[in-house]
Amino acid sequence: MDARQTDKSKLPSRHVTEGPERAPHRSYLYAMGLTTEQIHQPLVGVASCWNEAAPCNISLMRQAQAVKKGVAAAKGTPREFCTITVTDGIAMGHGGMRASLPSREVIADSVELTIRGHSYDALVGLAGCDKSLPGMMMAMVRLNVPSIFIYGGSILPGSFRGRPVTVQDLFEAVGKVAVGDMSLDDLDELERVACPSAGACGAQFTANTMATVSEAIGLALPYSAGAPAPYEIRDQFCAAAGEKVMELIAKNIRPRDIVTRKALENAAATVAASGGSTNAALHLPAIAHECGIEFTLFDVAEIFRKTPYIADLKPGGRYVAKDMFEVGGIPLLMKTLLDHGYLHGDCLTVTGRTIAENLAKVAWNPDQDVVRPADQPITVTGGVVGLKGNLAPEGAIVKVAGMPASSQVFTGPARVFDGEEACFEAVQNRTYKPGEVLVIRYEGPKGGPGMREMLSTTAALYGQGMGDKVALITDGRFSGATRGFCVGHVGPEAAIGGPIGLLRDGDIITLDAIKGTLDVALSDEELAQRRAAWTPRGNAATSGYLWKYAQTVGPAVNGAVTHPGGARETQSYADI
Predict the structure, then answer these.
(1) Strand, coil or helix: what is 453?
(2) What family classification does the UniProt entry report for this protein (predicted)?
(3) d(CA 190, CA 459)
């Protein structure tokens, strides 16, 4: 068939490439060297979060070229573009972290606008760091054009005096220096070897957690999210994705055919089973919101409660993402969950087949101990637990992977800090006391604004040997690299008068990850009196993007989203 005869009557790009009235539009495409055949083929957006900000993004442009070759080989026309990324490891511990969660919305919005503005027919999205993964997946389900997600891959572990290390060791080393357990010379040596390659943080922190989600939810090709960034096999996955997205166009398989309620439950199950980041309880509701599906923090927590923890991955375990890939990858984890009834096998994926069909030939690897069989778990409930109580009526989340049951209940007096910096200073100066519950508030989506992560503080505590002697709660977030009794996403947040904003030093707080509760020993009457006396406080975001974000962002329980979502749509972009 001649390229001019390609049926684009239902594809968005017809608005740019077809008919005599589009001659001016086509002239721009000819200016970039496209042929007549290429102009009249489906136009496929190849979006990456490439930048030189951090190693997690640095390989994405190379991988995008492989995607483009795959698209072209399947008679599509790739159109590459980049969007932003804010890298949490570099934004951590200072005001830059306020840009992290808002960047998720900018990524989704900017990809949407680029696809809409240029009438592309499909999307292959490459992302490498924390918020860029959910941001790219949110754009896919929002636009609802045939799409495939590609993770840029994890970093390789470093080696420090013969011991494998990750950036988690470096954050905790800061605490060791503060108490004299590590010299500045040793710290300097460690920082030079902790991150030896391109790729995202190597353990089951937020990036690898959301990479696991991408396969489990059905938006990524099997095995593609596990291969480390330096591995040449990544280019093969990328080329295959470019070819496969053309099949999705032909079959009209769209993201919302794939991301269903069952698929979201599958994603939550793999987070729990892998001891993944608490941030998944923020991102899964946000992805669901784009589809018009109600799937809140409480829905995520219920799946966590029912799913066994089986992957022995850092920060609570022994291994990193590279290790899991080399013993069978994410499909190995998914296969044992499916075999024991923890996954829905009938969910469609970007392969055009179901989860069960994709996993049919995956054989169990008995010669490894990275992933356990689902009927022989590390613990019978997931590595992440949802909490609720009079201190968190809208819920909270805590990562318990690697914590013994004896450490999953904590009662102590509150030590209240308005902002992370005040708490970090107390930790560095060791002016806190064992047995206290450190409360970091006014760090929520609106109050921060931006819902900062608190890894610098928690890692410093562990470096001081105090990680199991205090607890932390915040209306902000904790990094996927955080370990210890650290409760995030406490809602309602302090900035809107939530109970966490009413706490005073000395209030007795009980955290119980076994029962799933978070309470303060105050009566309803006392809380009401304090609420009546409470007055809002401002923050430094009085203009610019953070101000705009604070005006629109919703509560953490629903994913901290900024627009009405798929439920309010009257027409999706894919149907224009």
Answers:
(1) strand
(2) Belongs to the IlvD/Edd family.
(3) 15
Distance, CA of 302 to CA of 263 (rounded, Å): 15
Span 45-57, mean pLDDT? Answer: 97
Residue 145's nearest CA partner among 49, 13, 20 is 13
The reply to whether omega before 373 is within 30° of 0 (cis) is no
Alpha helices by DSSP H, listed for 194-279, are 206-216, 233-251, 255-258, 261-273
Residues near 406 by Cβ (< 8 Å), separated by ≥ 6?
Answer: none
Place of tokens 């044992």: 336
- Say whether 453 counts as a known binding-site residue: yes
HSE-up of 222 (CA within 13 Å, CB side)?
20
One-letter identity of residue 344: H
131 is in an annotated binding site: yes
Catalytically active residues are: 479
Q: Among candidates 344, 255, 319, which has minimal Cα distance to 291?
A: 255
C-alpha count within 13 angstroms, C-beta hemisphere, residue 194: 18
Bridge-based pairing state of the strands 437-441 and 409-418: parallel
d(CA 78, CA 399): 41
CA distance 481 to 476: 15
Residue 418 counted as an annotated binding residue: no
* pLDDT tens-digit readout, 493-538: 999 999 999 999 999 999 999 999 999 999 999 999 999 999 999 8
**How many Å apart are CA 14 and CA 21, to the nearest integer?**
11
Pairing of strands 437-441, 163-165: unpaired
pLDDT band of residue 550 (cuts 50, 70, 90) is very high
Distance between CA 358 and CA 418 in Å, rounded?
49
Q: Residue 275 contacts by C-beta under 8 Å, 6 or more apart in sequence?
A: 204, 309, 311, 313, 316, 317, 382, 383, 384, 399, 401, 402
Q: What per-residue confidence (pLDDT) applies to 1?
A: 33
Token pair 């470093």 in the structure block, residue: 158
Q: What is the sign, positive or negative, of the torsion defined by CA atoms of 303, 308, 312, 317?
A: positive
Write down the pLDDT at residue 456: 83
Distance CA 122, CA 253 (A): 11
Q: Is 130 annotated as a binding residue?
A: yes
